[in-house]
Amino acid sequence: MSASVKHKQDNAALLFLAALSLALLTVLTVWKLKQFKYRLINETGAAMFYGMLLGLTARWLWFEAHAENVESVCTCHGLNSTPRVLTVNTTTHEHCYRRVGKISQRCSLISAPHAETFDPEVLFNLFLPPIIFHGAYTLNQRRFIENLGSVLTYAFLGTIISCMCIGACMYGFTRLMVLLGQAADGEFFLTDCLLFGAIMSATDPVSVLGLLSDLRVDLDLHTLLFGESVLNDAVAIVLTHAITTYDQTGAVFDPAAFLRSAGLFLGVLVGSILIGFIFTVITALLTKFTRLHENPLLETSVFFLLSWSSFLSAQAGGLSGIVAVLFCGLSQARYTVLNLSSEGRTRTKQLFEVFNFLGEIFIFGYMGYVLLTFPHHVFKAVFISGAFLSIFISRACNIYPLSFLLNLGRTNKIPCAFQHFMTLAGLRGAVAFSVAFSLAARDDSTEARRAILTTTLLLVAFTIWVLGSASDPVLRRLDIRVGVDADENPQDLSLEVATGRPDTTRGLWHRLDYKYLKPLLTHCGPPLTDSLPPCCGVVARLFSSPHVQEEQLFETEPEECTFDLEKTENQFKSAGGDCGSENQEDLVEGDLVEGDLGLGTVPAHIREA
C-alpha cells in the first residue's frame, strides 16, 4: 500500500471519527436540552452548529499543516521581471493574460477541504431515504385524509406559487445586481432564479416534525404543516428536474422546451409514484403469502430493504427517488403494516425512527461543515438579501390566498392564527440543501449555482435557528393550543365509532380501497371472489388471503385496533375484526364523502351527534 493511499485512509478514518463524535455530542446536547425543557434549539440546530465547529477546526488544522508548503508554492522570486501582458497565439484564437499582482500566500483556503470531505452522494443516499420514508410512514393518515384537499393544495399548488414568486423576486434582484455592477449581464438567467425558487419552496419535514412534536401543537395545524412539508418536497424535486431540462436562449421563450419540461414534470412525478407503489405491492404480497411474521428480524429486514430499494430504483431509472420513497412510505403504512406481526411493526417503526434521527444529525451537521469548508462559495449581498425577503413574500402569497379559497369549502375553517404560524414555520433543510449541493458540485457548475448553494445554506441556518426558536413565543402570542395529546382528542376515532352507526357516505376511493386494494394486498376486507367479476375468478382465488376477515365496527381505541396475524390464525371467527387498519387511524373510513375532497368538511350527521 502506497504512502499516499494510506494517508487518505487515515484522513477518512479521522473524518468519520469526527462525524461520530459530532453525532454523539449532538445527542447528549439534545438530551440535556430536553431535560431542562429548553425549546429554543432542537437537534437540527445543534447538529448544524457542531458541524460548523467541525468545519472551522478542519480549516484551521489544514491551514496549519499546509502553511509551509503553500508558502513555498506561492513565492515566485522572479515575478517582478515578468512582462505585464503575455499574448499567446494558438491557431485562430488569441489569448491575452495580464499580470495583476502577487499571489497571496493565504490562498490556501481556496482548496482547503477538497481532499478531506465527505462524499455527499453517499451521505444523501444513506440517510435521506429513511428521513423521507419516516415522515410519510408516521403521518397521521386519518387526519391526513380528512384534510387531504387542503394538504394537496398547499403542497402542489402552493409549492408552484412559491417557486414562481421566489423566481420572479430573485430575477428582479439579479437585474438590480447588474445595475449596481455586482453581476455581469447574463450571469443570472430566469431559469437560475426559478431553480432557486424550486429549491427554496421545499419545506423540511424533519425540522417541521421536530418543531411540532416538541411543542405538541393543535392536531389540525400539525396535520396541515407536516402533510404539506412531506408532499411539497416531492413537488419541489420534480420542479427542479423540469427546470434544469428547460433550455433557454437568452430571454427568448421557447414553447417547445417549455412543453417538454411540463411533460417531464408529469412523467417524473407519475413514474416515481408508480415505482414507490410497486415496491409496496411487492412487500405486501411477500409478507401476505409467506410466514415471515414468524421471524420478526427477517420480516423487518425485508420491509426495510424493499422500502429503501424504491429510492435507489427510481434514482437509477432517472426518476425522483425522494418522490418514490415518499409514496412508498405512505402506501406501506396503509397496507403492508397490516401483514406484519406485532413485534415487526414495533421494530420497523423504531428502526426508521433511529435512522431518521441519525440522518438529520449527520445531514444538518454536514450542512454546517460545508458552510465553512466549501471551496467555491459565492457571497453576493444583494442576492442573499433578496432571498431572505422573497421567502417571506412567497410564503405569504402561498398560505393566505389558498387558505381563503380552502375556507370557502371547509366546515372546519383554517383560522387566521394558523395561517400566520404556517407562514412563519416554513423551515428549510435537507432536501433544499441536497438539491443545491448536487447542482453546485458539478464540474459544469456556474457561478450562479454556487451562489444558490451559498444562499441556501444561509437560509437553512436562518430558518432553523431564528424561525425555529421564535416558534414557541409566536404560538403563545397567537394563542394556539400547545401540549395537545392526540390520544385525548375524540376526533381521532373513526367515523363509525364516533357516530355509533354504520357509515353510509363512503366515496369512490373508499370503495376502491376496501373492495379491491385491501383484499389484494392484506388479509383484510371482503373476499376478492365477491368483489371481482366472475371472469376474474382465477385471479381472485390466486390472491385471496387464507385469513380473510371482514372489517367490522368495534368499540376500542384506535391504537388498540391493530391487526395481529398470529391471533387471526387461532381466532379466525372471533369477534373484533382486528384488521380495521386502526393502527394507521383508519385512513379512508368515511373520511372521503361524495363531493368532499378532504377539505376538512365534516358530514352533517357527525355535527348532530
UniProtKB/TrEMBL annotation:
Keywords: Antiport, Cell membrane, Endosome, Ion transport, Membrane, Sodium, Sodium transport, Transmembrane, Transmembrane helix, Transport
Main location group: membrane
NCBIfam families tied to this protein: b_cpa1 (TIGR00840)
Species of origin: Stegastes partitus (bicolor damselfish)
Gene name in the database record: LOC103365308
GO MF, one annotated term: potassium:proton antiporter activity
Mode of membrane association: Multi-pass membrane protein
Pfam families associated with the record: Na_H_Exchanger
Domain of life: Eukaryota
Domain Cation/H+ exchanger transmembrane: residue ranges: 110-476
Listed GO CC annotations: plasma membrane; recycling endosome membrane
Subcellular localization(s) per the UniProt record: Cell membrane; Recycling endosome membrane
Annotated family: Belongs to the monovalent cation:proton antiporter 1 (CPA1) transporter (TC 2.A.36) family.
Keyword Ion transport: yes
Transmembrane segments: 12-33, 45-63, 151-174, 194-212, 264-286, 306-330, 351-372, 378-400, 421-439, 451-468
GO biological process per UniProt: regulation of intracellular pH; sodium ion import across plasma membrane
Name of the protein this chain belongs to: Sodium/hydrogen exchanger
